[in-house]
Design a protein that fits this description.
By secondary structure, the chain is of the alpha+beta class. It folds into four domains: 75 residues, no CATH class; 79 residues, Orthogonal Bundle (DNA polymerase, domain 1); 149 residues, Orthogonal Bundle (hpI Integrase, Chain A); 36 residues, no CATH class. Helix content is 49%, strand content 12%. The chain has 14 helices and nine strands. The strands form three sheets. It has a three-stranded antiparallel β-sheet, with no helix packed on it. Strands 4-5-6 form a three-stranded antiparallel β-sheet. Strands 7-9-8 form a three-stranded antiparallel β-sheet, covered by helices on one side. Helix 5 packs antiparallel against helix 6 and helix 7 packs antiparallel against helix 8. The radius of gyration is 30 Å and the shape is globular.
Length: 414
Amino acid sequence: MTEEATASINADETQSVKLEQPPKCRECGSQRVWKAGIRYTPFGEVQRYLCRDCGHRFSVQSSAEPLQKIRRWSINSDSAILLGCQVCVSEAEGTKNLEEEETRLKEAQRESTALSQADVKGKIVEFSWWMQKQGYAEQTILGRTQLLKILTDRGANLLDPESIKETITKQKDWCEGRKANAVISYSCFLKMHGGKWDPPRYREEQQLPWIPQEKEVDDLIAGCSMKVSCFLQILKEGAIRPGEAWRLKWTDIDYENKTITLNRPEKHSNSRQFRISTKLINVLSNLQRARDIHPERIFNYVSTSSLRRCFERQRKRIAYKTGNPRLERISFKTLRHWKATYEYHRTKDILYVMNFLGHKRIQNTLKYTHLVNLEQDEYVSRVAKSTVEVCQLVDTGFEYVCDVDGNKVFRKRK
């Protein structure tokens, strides 16, 4: 091979390596980007990217000239002669094509792997159907099947309990609670097959939920899209679970009395009814005019998982724009914890909070009694001298404090 051909090949290899490097985000300059599909235009293909730091989407049009150079090199260069050669043994007897033999072994291994994956998938589907017949909740079935699938993808054998133990032990990034859920999931799987095992001991660590400030919650809700914002507002005012809000129907809303009735609770909790604000009523009215796919349901998402992924993308973008990384810690369950904490410190009535959350056991409600001390927060004070002013302050969220010189003093947390 001549020096010119070698230099040409090295230059083309350098060019191909440069093409594989991800582009920089036009918003924040980061190179931590994901490929987000291809857009087909009359002028060629346009690669779409999503920034993992700020959530910005942008396009980069691919150049046809470098690709043609690479294809020309792979066909016309001297090294292309090696692509079609056959490597054989030197013995006269028993000579065989090693390339064909290696290809055959790879295909056989791929077929066996596909068969084993099909068997595993069939067992997980069978396990899911068995739990459904036993009356398990939908979220319980989804969580346990996902855990078993993760274990099998990471090398565990569903028919070998020792393999399950070893795989769970190797998950260093799992907390004790997730490992305990994996043990419970596999115990349920063995119950279906009538098997037994000596389960490892993992105890879930009781951690207090993180409670954000109300201003942070309002900023996040205001920055999301219309549907996601309405979903978050319902979680904030009603302290209901994400699955409960996702299953709400238009018939559950009473626009005249400004209430929402929850008749399909999760985790076998009590049905309940809660009041909502005028702001949420107006947003729901606008959504009802634009309903299309599921006219009977408020939110036409396929599942709560798709809704959560949409929310996480918007949350990341809002946190970057506002410069507040604490917003990325807010999840759907955070709003339920925030409302429960707020209601207890407002009423100091643990039984009221238990009924408000739909709990059947007061032990599940007691953890909200010592989360944060809202009394140390800053307040805005107002004085009402007439009945009309009192009504206006109450409608805007102010709370009565005391009487001073015949006037009523109200306050509202900032």
